[in-house]
Design brief:
Radius of gyration: 22 Å
Oligomer: single chain
CATH class of the largest domain: Alpha Beta
CATH topology of the largest domain: Aspartate Aminotransferase, domain 2
Distance between the termini: 31 Å
Shape: globular
Strand order of the largest sheet: 1-7-6-5-4-2-3
Largest sheet: 7 strands, mixed
Number of helices: 13
Helix content: 40-55%
Order of helices and strands: HHEHEHEHEHEEEHHHEHHHEH
Number of strands: 9
Length: 377
Amino acid sequence: MLLVAEPILGEEEKAALAAVVDDGWITMGDRVRAFEQAFADMHGVQDAVALSSCTAGLHLMLEALGLGPGDEVLVPAATFVATANSVLYVGATPVFVDIEGLDLPLMSLSDAEDKCTERTKAVILVHYAGYLPDRERWWSFAESRGLLLIEDAAHCAGLKGAGTIGDAAAFSFYGNKNMTTAEGGMVLARDEAVLDRIRQLRAHGMTSGARQRLTGHASGYDVTMLGYNYRMDEFRAAIGLVQIAKLPAWNARRRILTEAYRRLLESDCPETAMPFSGERPSAYHILPILLPPGGNRARIQEVLRADGVQTSIHYAPVHHFTLYRDRCPGVSLPLTEEFARRELSLPLHPKMDERDVETVVRALARALAQQRQGATL
C-alpha cells in the first residue's frame, strides 16, 4: 500500500535512542535543550520551547498570551479539531471563519473582518497543507484591531517564515508530519517573556527543573503558576535532533513531488483541481485535491485502495462535529463545507519518487473513468 504519509526512521534514530539509554538521563534534559536551539536556528529566531505535542503548544500559547473566559478567538473550521479545542481549554470562545476559496483553503480575511466583535481578542491562522498566508495583510488586520495573531504551524516545520508571522506559533512532530518525534511539538514566540512563561507552564509551573537541580544550578523550586505536564523527554528530542538535520532535503523532495502531481493531474485528471495554484511559500505537508462536484468520493477511495493507494480527507469541518454544533449552533461556512465535501488527500512523503506519483495519478484516472462510465449507464 502506498501510504498517504510515512515517517522515515532508521539506524541513526536507533543509535540516538540507544545513546539516551546509555546516558541514563531520560526525562527533559540536555537533548531537549539542544533540539530547541536547533529548531530555533532553523527558523531564524533566538529560542524555542519543546513540548509533548502541538496541541499543548496551542494551549500554552493562548494561556501565556492571556486569553480566557469572555474572549473570542477567530479560527478556521478547515483544520484539525485541536485548533478549536485549544481555545476551549482556556475558557475562550472559538468563532469559525470561512476559507478564502476552493483554490486557497486558508482563512478568509474578509470573513474574519465580518466576524470581529468587541470581544474578539485573537486570530489563529492555520497553515493548511504547509502553505503560508499573506503575512502583511494579516499583520495589518491584527494590528489595526489590537488582536493577537497566533500561528497553528503544525504543517510547516522547516519552512522559512513559518513561526514569524504572528505573536507565537506551534509546530507538530506527530508521526505523519514532515519530521517526527512520534509525539511532540515546539513553540516560537515574538516576546521572550511569553516564551519563558510557556517554558514554566509546561512543567507544573515550577521555577526549576530536575536537570537544573541535579547539576547544581538550582537547589529547590517554587510553584508560581498553575502549570501542566507538557514536557518533552530525551528520547523524543534525540530523534528530533536526527530528523531536523534531514528536514531541508525532505521538504525539497516534497516540493518536487508536488510539482510532479500538478503536471500529471492537469494532463491525466483534468476534471480534478489542485489548490494553491499561485506561488506561495510551503512545506508541502499534504497533497489535497478537489474531486469533481457531485462525485462519489467514498467509491473513488475504494477503487484507489484496491489499486494499492491509500487516501485520506483533510478535514471534516470542525463546526460540524457534535461538540461544536452544540456550542456554536447555526454556523454556516459555504466554501469550507464545499471544500470538505470534495477534498481528497493523495500520498505525499519523501520515501516516494516520481514513479509513485505516476502510479497514484493513473489509479485516480481509472477511478474517475469508472465513475463517469457508471454515471452514463
